[in-house]
Write a structure and sequence with these properties.
This protein has twelve helices and eight strands. The chain is elongated.
């Protein structure tokens, strides 16, 4: 039987983040119990690090998981900021996370995002104690900002949707299904990107544009106007090479480039997919370019479409590319 450890962050005399009379520890426990109940109903063995309002030291949380030897460890939290406008959900994995951890975290993140959030802050890499000291594949999910009124409203009104989406992602990451909750989605074997280093990943993109498209960029990790124009120019070059589009390779997104755009979808493998993934990444979405339109890319395309108010179909066509490339 598959086993999952659910960790409700904080507890007891540690309230976590506080917003008026609202305590993070309470929201965490409510969500942990709700997710656990769904998993148990689907035949998953669930172990809680806490199921009541008690304090559990960080190292003991990892010890509980290590003794249970689960397939997956999921820590549940709410975020907070001194900026009341800060909002959105994000999922964290360890800096040395396995490919399975990354795939599972992305599945959970994408399904919660699909349930309706203010913004998707993406997959992140960190050194939280429970990620660092837990032997099992692990993630730490932040269900919006307790310091943001709209995130709190969404957490309350879509609570059941979030719980079901989380359970669905967990079950799918284990290659299982549960009637009424999810269908199986095998974990991707895509290797994890370098640990949360945006600058390094942008340098990789700039280097690739230089090597393959003679972009002449300064490899500085800053994806500004010059790099963006080089990415559009590379896209135009590929449309010319693959489809004889006859475009001027000027790096400017205009009507002719839009008209020449071909729709990309899950299963595609080509240089256009690589350029689309690079555009997604530099727009803040967790897709490292590899030229393969797989489940992670599909989820991030959908997340981008939702964030930009587009139709959410996972197809990267003219409307999606226009928002990816448009100067704003």
């Amino acid at each position: 039987m598959a086993r999952v450890v659910i960790d409700a962050g904080h507890g007891g005399y540690d309230p976590g983040a506080v917003f008026g009379s609202r305590l993070e520890k309470d929201d965490n426990l409510r969500m942990a119990l709700a997710v656990g109940n769904i998993l148990r109903g689907c035949g998953i063995d669930v172990v809680y690090t806490r199921s009541t309002d008690v304090f559990v030291p960080l190292l003991e949380r990892s010890a509980i998981s290590n003794r249970a030897n689960p397939n997956l460890f999921v820590s549940i939290h709410r975020n907070a900021s001194t900026n009341p406008a800060a909002n959105g959900v994000e999922n964290w994995v360890a800096t040395n996370a396995s490919a399975f951890s990354v795939a599972a975290a992305n599945l959970v993140l994408n399904r919660v995002v699909a349930a309706g959030v203010q913004s998707n802050r993406g997959l992140k890499y960190g050194t939280f104690s429970v990620l660092r000291n837990t032997n099992a594949p692990a993630m730490l999910f932040e269900y919006g900002f307790i310091s943001n009124a709209e995130d709190n409203r969404l957490f309350d009104t879509r609570f059941n949707d979030y719980a079901r989406a989380t359970a669905s992602g967990i079950i799918s990451s284990l290659g299982r299904s549960c009637p009424g909750v999810t269908t199986p989605t095998p974990p991707t074997t895509q290797p994890p990107p370098p640990p949360g280093d945006y600058v390094e990943n942008v340098r990789r993109i700039q280097t690739y544009l230089n090597t393959h498209y003679n972009a002449g960029l300064t490899v500085d990790g800053n994806f500004g106007p010059v790099s963006k124009r080089a990415l559009i120019r590379a896209y135009q070059m590929e449309l010319n090479r693959m489809f004889n589009a006859g475009l001027a390779t000027d790096g400017i997104w205009g009507p002719r480039t839009r008209a020449a755009t071909r729709t990309l979808r899950i299963g595609d493998r080509n240089n256009l997919v690589w350029l689309m993934q690079a555009a997604l990444y530099t727009n803040g979405f967790s897709t490292i370019p590899d030229g393969s339109f797989g489940p992670i890319t599909d989820g991030q395309v959908r997340a981008f479409q939702r964030a930009r108010g587009l139709g959410i179909d996972g197809l990267a066509g003219p409307n999606t590319f226009e928002r990816l490339f448009r100067w704003e």
